[in-house]
Amino acid sequence: MALALPSGASAYLSTRNISPFPRSRVIVGARWSTPRYGPPRNQWGDVMPTIWADDGNEYTIVDDGGVDVPGPGELWRSAPARITGTPPKIRFTRVGDPDAPPPHTFAQIAKDAALWSGPLGPYYSSGLVEASGVFYTTQQRLWNFLVDPEFPGLQGIAYSTDRGAHWQMANKAFAAPLGNLSWVIRGKGGFYPDGWVYAIASEREYNASTLLLGRARPDVADFTDPSRWQWASGWAGPDRGSSPAFSSSLAAAVPIAGWTGHITYPEMAYDSPIHRYLLTFEYSYAKTTPAMWRNGAELVILEAPHPWGPFSFVAHEPEFGPSNGYAAGFPVGWISRNGRDLWLKWAANWNGCASGLDCSGGYGFNYRRMHLTLAGDR
Fold first, then answer.
1. What's the rounded Cα separation, in Å, for the pair 372 and 252?
2. What is the pTM for the complete model shown?
3. 4-374, what's its fold?
4. How far apart are CA 358 and CA 335, in angstroms?
5. How many CA atoms lie within 13 A of 47 on its CB side?
6. Could you tell me the residue ranges of all domains in the chain?
């Protein structure tokens, strides 16, 4: 079981608008309602896109870690896991054969880089979704994270028909600057009432400036073929409150939101009881590595009536933790029936934590419950 961690003197949510987005008129308050909970003892790693599958459980892909790793210090490049129970009592179970391929330590990888692999091959994953009973996950082409360049694209989108136990590789490349393509999670088993599954992406790992929106039909042929994807490329009406126009050309895509140097690992989830899409991301206070990884980061929460916006500011947390506050997001299976209480998950501390920061987050699945106040609730 995860253990409650100290909340830290600086751990608070503020609704003071520090963003270029207008203040939300729908969600007017946000506060933490539990302490932080650290990763379960049998799990470590980062990013961890999380979905609510058709069997009622949450599933995730763990990068640079795993669940029930056979030996001390061993890791997979990326590996699936099943999450059962509800917070704060959750349990992680490894999915798939631990020897296909076997994990290795960083010391072993330093001698032979080919050992740094996992069920998806030598690729990280930032996106996971289920559609029509099939799991899909991204295979990111590697980038030089030491200098934080633009992403070079995807090797492809892999898919699984047995909830992550085995993966099939389409090997159809998606162009740059795609990398951290992350699907919009709308409900149990995928949930795509308009016939489309949406995804968002920013152009680099840390402190990106733009957010793109893509979509595909919920079947293997469409999901895995970049030529069948569509990208938001403008607006059908006079403003961003209108429906977007879509193009099959990634080069024609235009940002659905932008904030120069402030978008790190964005995720979006649909809070269906209140009919709002919640967009979460962090940004690093430092602008270059290695300080970018460890000198502090800020959590930002926006909301919108549609996956494409228009976005409004909800809350932020200064000094959320070290700058590697990976992929904060709301697992939709843990949203209350009235939509006001939900759990945020994130990973932290892969490269240390600068002195004076709240360093309570662990390198794994951290989580904490948040309460939202809507206009009219009082």
1. 36
2. 0.95
3. Tachylectin-2; Chain A (2.115.10)
4. 26
5. 28
6. 4-374
